[in-house]
Amino acid sequence: MRAFIEHAADALQMDLDPARFLVVDAARLKRTVFLYAPVSATPIAVVRMPVHWDTVKRCVAEHEGLQAFATLNLSAIQAPKPLTPFTWGEFECYTQQFISGRPWLLDLPVRDSLPKRSHVDTAVDLLIELHNASVSSEADEVSNTRCFQHRDFFLGNIGWRDKTAVLYDFEYARPKGYPLYDLLHFLLYYRIALRNRGLMRQNVAKGEYDAQQEERHFHLTAEDIQHTMVLPGGYRDVVARAVARYCIGCEIALDEAERLIVHSVEQAVENGRGVAGLSSDWQRALVNQLQQEMERTL
Amino acid sequence: MRRTSFMSSDVQTHRLPAEETVRFVLGEYPVHLVSSVEDCAHALNLAESGAIILGTQARLSREAPAHLLRTLSFGAIRNTRLDQLERALKREGWRVERVVCALPNIETARYVFELNDADSHCFLVRDLLLPRQHALPQSRRTLLRIYATVLGMFPRTRIFFRSYFILAVRV
Lengths: 298, 171
Fold this sequence. Notes:
- Chain A is an alpha+beta fold.
- Chain A contains eight helices and eleven strands.
- The radius of gyration of chain A is 20 Å and the shape is globular.
- Chain B is elongated, with a radius of gyration of 17 Å.
- Chain B starts with 17 loop residues before the first helix and ends with a strand.
- In chain B, strand 3 and strand 4 form a beta hairpin.
């Protein structure tokens, strides 16, 4: 391990402590190593070591996403800076700066069934800034992609350093993607986090984990869409209000907003699985409410 | 990238084997998982090369006669007496070169850091595990929050250290 850290220090031109590290074997066959400077109490660099073709692609994508984000120069959002990749034995290692931030997920409501209003408002503000800083006047003719899209924008990938948001995990990011997707992702995965509260009942430390007994859900279902965007009241009010503010801030017309909502939910957010079980115009009530919100705000 | 069978394996299997991680951290030595004195002695006798990795859970067999292993079998509240293990290995002609903690257990070893690395321990608990506390039942969520608070005041706390990989080197 010492040799690895010394090699990383040389490749990155950084002073690293060879005696401290945290190795995390996350899912998807990718090892992550957090490294420290001699005098730092928190890591200063992160090394991703993929061991599968799939994760190699994602590490490359993350590296490129960070590079693209770095060109935006946002005031309210930071992201780690990509560092120099290097080779260790047979591994390609993708590295980035580590920025410490207070995880936003710590503030997930304990009992409420709806997202905190302040969380949603803040997310909208951040995403408006991200959109407006990255939107291209030359949208792709076929796909109409035109702005930076993080694609995994949710509480668990956001931290706070004073009043600045720190955005993590860019492995799905696209420098040119769809507006509105990230906001919908934020709202929908907030719902998933609320839904999973208290459901981790197996004792992993004792080696009792059985995937078959897992009660948590990590992927969106038609039931989630029904709950957040179709059924009146509560969550749909939150979504309509947030989307209205975002569309006004990003100058997105209602008809385009509807197309983006349908596209995001039925294809991108659902990872191509579709939304079987919903009606063919499931978005109608939400869009009507969205129209009212936009008119009220304007 | 690495030319192993991982390249063609189903990515749905998700995680690297714990041994891969431990060898990355401690070196390319044989790994023996031990849970009793007999296991430990057997592993030491089998070791042909000058170094081996012993993986041990704190909760070892209650039938283990050696004093040091009875200490290791105490629950989470008691610090594990690795210094006693070190002395026992020394009697067999071995030296403890390095010790790393493996969480949540030695079978999965998802998180690995040096035993004396209080900063990594704190970072793991407060920045990686604590934010995901919402999925835990109330009682364990409270326990984790207390532990994170205690760590903030006493960074060298080792209350929940149960699983270790020990690099032992023949003297």
